[in-house]
């Protein structure tokens, strides 16, 4: 068995799985195996739904997901671990592979259970894991409840991160797990180790989910609907259990009850930790929270004003759409109570900017993140202060209440601004490709830009451009954009660069 494993390692490395040596893969393989085994375990949860609703005919198709995750997990966990820790490049590539594999395997129940084409199934699964909310299902209303719960579960698990979810169950910490955690786009470590941090984050997540279900039930909708809505709202995902989405209920009360759940998912989870353990109410002092509330108020005012004046909606309806769509956009949730295609371009542009900014770092939201926006504004202030102070004066850049001196401002800012630049670059490149790959069909270039921003920020609000009739090439492009956006692009680039180097080495050696 060990001999077969040793033969497989060069094959995986040769295919570009890791840009590092085989020892790097061996060092990280057991950790990856545990992650896949945990996903396999949680993937069995839809069986309970299937048995409860008598959908026994779908048990076997649904079993394809936990079986796939389990087989990979058992193989990887069985590889003997070598001494040493994996390098950062290996951790970045590994995380990118975990998320892509999750979509490839998570797609199997849709293909076997619904007969959905595999490309559409991968799209659905990637949209679920990344919390995007785009859907290619022909009819959500006729989809079995077991598969609807699978969609909601993938968004709920992917909300805080697959790696963070798995690390929470680990019994020890280490540099490799820390690098995997950070490679997933996580920076918050408000406990001594990433294991303890992951555990606390998921405990908070469970409490918020339970409180959200209780709140949404006040609208009078069934428990089944409330559970699924809250699972996808707190994870800022946006999948619904009806084809019409939230509009199916035609309930302004329900929409307003969902608003605080979406906001709760987009706030830094560190604030909940401080509230519970330190009795410190930081929601009105944390700069990300303040900026989030400020952008929500500004966005609501702009969108409501535009809808009431330019689109000539009744003031009450304009306010209803303005509040819900603004919160859904900036929190990257993707629920809709309006069709942005019916809006004027100025209103759509305002929502596009909010979606690109996204929610707080350390939350379930996507986008560039409010923390980077704050850092960018601090950088501008720092540069103006330096210009006024003169060359010889030492002007510190203050961030998070501390001074960053000398060469560190450029380093700190470059790391954050790189992600912002990459987001904009992905939007530009993907838009150009889509304009060539996908027929317009009545959609203009502004609609394409809106959909791409919605995909890369993992929002899911749509003008209708994303639909089952898209070409396979366009669907795969959206799959890649959702995948890259959820991981903040750098891990996907690391994986692609590693694969390119291995391929080049294989060709020219």
Total strand count, please? Answer: 2
The structure class reads: mainly alpha
> What is the number of helices?
22
Spatial order of the strands forming the largest sheet:
1-2
> Rough shape?
globular
Percentage of residues in strands: under 5%
Radius of gyration: 23 Å
Q: Kindly state the mean pLDDT as a whole number?
A: 85
Could you characterize what this model shows?
By secondary structure, this protein is mainly α. It has 22 helices and two strands. It has a two-stranded antiparallel ribbon with strand order 1-2. A hairpin with a 2-residue loop joins strand 1 and strand 2.
Which descriptors apply to this entry?
509 residues; mainly alpha; two-stranded antiparallel sheet; 66% helix
Quick recap:
This protein has 509 residues and is mainly alpha-helical. The protein is built from 22 helices and 2 strands.
């Amino acid at each position: 068995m060990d001999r077969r494993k040793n033969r497989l390692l060069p094959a995986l490395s040769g295919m570009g799985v890791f840009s590092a040596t085989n020892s790097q893969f061996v060092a990280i393989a057991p950790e990856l195996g545990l992650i896949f085994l945990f996903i396999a375990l949680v993937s069995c949860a839809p069986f309970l739904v299937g048995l409860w609703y008598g959908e026994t005919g779908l048990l076997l198709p649904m079993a394809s997901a936990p079986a796939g995750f389990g087989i990979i997990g058992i193989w990887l966990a069985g590889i003997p671990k070598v001494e040493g820790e994996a390098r950062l490049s290996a951790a970045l590539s590994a995380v990118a592979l975990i998320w892509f594999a999750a979509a490839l395997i998570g797609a199997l129940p849709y293909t076997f259970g619904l007969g959905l084409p595999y490309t559409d199934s991968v799209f659905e699964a990637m949209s679920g894991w990344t919390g995007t909310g785009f859907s290619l299902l022909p009819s959500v209303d006729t989809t079995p409840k077991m598969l609807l719960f699978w969609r909601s579960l993938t968004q709920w698990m992917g909300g805080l991160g697959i790696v963070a979810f798995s690390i929470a169950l680990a019994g020890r910490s280490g540099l490799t797990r820390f690098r995997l955690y950070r490679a997933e786009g996580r920076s918050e470590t408000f406990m001594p180790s990433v294991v303890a941090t992951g555990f606390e984050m998921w405990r908070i997540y469970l409490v918020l989910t339970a409180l959200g279900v209780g709140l949404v039930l006040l609208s009078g909708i069934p428990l089944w609907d409330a559970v699924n809505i809250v699972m996808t709202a707190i994870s800022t995902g946006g999948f619904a259990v009806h084809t019409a989405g939230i509009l199916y209920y035609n309930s302004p009360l329900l929409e307003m009850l969902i608003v605080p759940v979406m906001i709760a998912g987009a706030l830094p989870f560190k604030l909940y930790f401080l509230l519970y353990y330190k009795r410190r109410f930081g929601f009105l002092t944390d700069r990300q929270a303040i900026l989030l509330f400020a952008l929500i108020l500004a966005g609501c005012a702009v969108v409501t004003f535009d809808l009431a004046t330019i689109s000539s909606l009744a003031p009450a309806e304009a306010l209803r759409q303005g509040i819900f769509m603004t919160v859904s956009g900036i929190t990257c949730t993707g629920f809709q109570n309006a069709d942005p295609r019916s809006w004027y371009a100025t209103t759509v542009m305002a929502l596009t900017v909010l979606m690109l900014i996204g929610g707080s770092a350390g939350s379930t939201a996507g986008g560039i993140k409010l923390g980077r926006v704050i850092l960018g504004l601090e950088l501008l202030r720092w540069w103006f202060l330096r210009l006024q102070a003169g060359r010889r004066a030492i002007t510190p850049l203050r961030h998070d209440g501390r001074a960053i001196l000398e060469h560190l401002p450029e380093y700190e800012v470059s790391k954050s601004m790189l992600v912002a630049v990459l987001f904009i670059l992905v939007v530009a490149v993907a838009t150009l490709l889509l304009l060539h790959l996908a027929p317009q069909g009545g959609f203009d270039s502004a609609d394409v830009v809106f959909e791409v921003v919605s995909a890369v920020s993992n929002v899911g609000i749509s003008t209708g451009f994303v639909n089952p009739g898209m070409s396979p090439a366009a669907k795969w492009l959206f799959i890649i954009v959702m995948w890259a956006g959820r991981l903040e692009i750098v891990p996907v680039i690391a994986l692609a660069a590693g694969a390119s180097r291995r391929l080049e080495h294989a060709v020219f050696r």
